[in-house]
């Protein structure tokens, strides 16, 4: 499945660089890269995008207010706020406005690409507003996947069971292995049992 994306960022170099990097992903197609949202509604109606990625700060508006306006229009697309700031108030305001994710610009393109796929699968992705949690803390989705790994299911089987793309499952498995300080799926299961995170 091809994911159609609109990008909005008033920094032209950032905009074109991000467009070029995202289009290297086989399942992404950037249908528009815009320095301002002036003709956004027309472009949404024309291209029916799946994802809108927009900067939190724009010249004549901001990403949070723009998100509110888009939600009022009831367009059926996912919205990711891209920001150079890891401020709790920005993150919370983005949630309240109706955004589906908030990604800081210090993250890698690979991370943004994975967030785009997660959001397309119906997930919400926001930085934690609380003090940093222990590294072994798993999300509910990761716990579900860990249980299936423990049941000796393959990536393809997990993908089918949870109705997630294979790439999204692979991303979650990588995160699980890292959080549990393991170097393999089996090691992650063993460490999870030791930590009391998994009962067989």
From TrEMBL:
Stretches assigned to the HTH luxR-type domain: 131-196
TM regions (residue ranges): none
Domain of life where this protein originates: Bacteria
Sites bearing 4-aspartylphosphate, chain numbering: 55
Organism the protein comes from: Sporolactobacillus nakayamae
SMART domains for this protein: HTH_LUXR, REC
Gene Ontology BP annotations: phosphorelay signal transduction system; regulation of DNA-templated transcription
Keyword list, A-Z: DNA-binding, Phosphoprotein, Transcription, Transcription regulation, Two-component regulatory system
Name of the protein described by the UniProt record: Two component transcriptional regulator, LuxR family
GO molecular-function term, one example from the UniProt record: DNA binding
Pfam families in UniProt: GerE (PF00196), Response_reg (PF00072)
Domain spans labelled Response regulatory: 4-120
